[in-house]
Design goal:
By secondary structure, this protein is an all-beta fold. It is built from 1 helix and 10 strands, in the order ββββαββββββ. Strands 1-2-3-4-5-6-7-8-9-10 form a 10-stranded antiparallel barrel. The protein is globular, with a radius of gyration of 18 Å. It comes from Arthrobacter vasquezii. Keywords: Heme, Iron, Isomerase, Metal-binding. Its EC number is 5.99.-.-.
Length: 199
């Protein structure tokens, strides 16, 4: 599947550009066995001229035929190249940047390519129930691997200590898998899905 890189894209988002758009599809909770519950998910990756991709995913439990039973969850966050921020970057808060974008050309982005030929990335994802995840990982072509460096929980949040996520583009579809460590267990399969681009 070919895709066009938006002409207004911040140069450092080019490695993440294949994610941009709306993706929809179905998946299974847990290990995806015959008794695993079904869900439908809509994930949206957008960019706003700044050096990050904004992410939102909404999920609903479904029956085997795909009929919606009830809302499952929502998560939202930001994905970006992992690099030291400088005066050309916005923040903290509403502090304006000196220059946008901080990296102005493909050559400047290339200096961040890692030893494996990809790019180190970070993703910050927030969930209902007072949970936020900080992931570090890498992107190489249409494949992403992420592991949590930190999981922040509120004082009344459920037990949740670590996670990994894998995403890959296969024949134009977005395949993903999410493993989590919760309730005192080590990493276990949590969910997986195949999403198709809808816009």
């Amino acid at each position: 599947m070919s895709f066009e890189i938006p002409t207004d894209l911040t140069p450092e988002l080019v490695p993440l550009s294949w994610l941009l758009g709306m993706w929809e599809g179905s998946g299974r909770l847990g290990e995806g066995t015959a008794d695993s519950e079904h869900f439908f998910q809509r994930a949206v990756f957008t960019q706003h001229g700044l050096p990050y991709v904004q992410y939102t995913a909404e999920s609903w439990l479904t029956d085997e035929e795909g009929n919606t039973l009830r809302p499952l969850s929502v998560e939202t966050g930001f994905w970006a190249l992992d690099r030291k921020l400088n005066d050309a970057d916005v923040g903290p808060g509403l502090s304006p940047a000196d220059i946008v974008p901080a990296l102005k050309s493909a050559d400047e982005v290339e200096q961040f390519r890692n030893d494996a030929g990809g790019f180190d990335i970070t993703a910050t994802i927030v969930h209902p129930g007072g949970i936020a995840e900080l992931y570090y990982g890498s992107i190489k072509g249409p494949q992403i691997q992420l592991s949590t460096d930190l999981v922040m929980r509120g004082q009344h949040s459920k037990d949740y200590s670590a996670a990994t996520r894998l995403l890959g583009l296969v024949n134009g579809d977005l395949y993903w898998r999410w493993d989590i460590a919760a309730d005192g267990s080590s990493l276990e399969p949590h969910a997986s899905a195949i999403l198709r681009k809808s816009s």
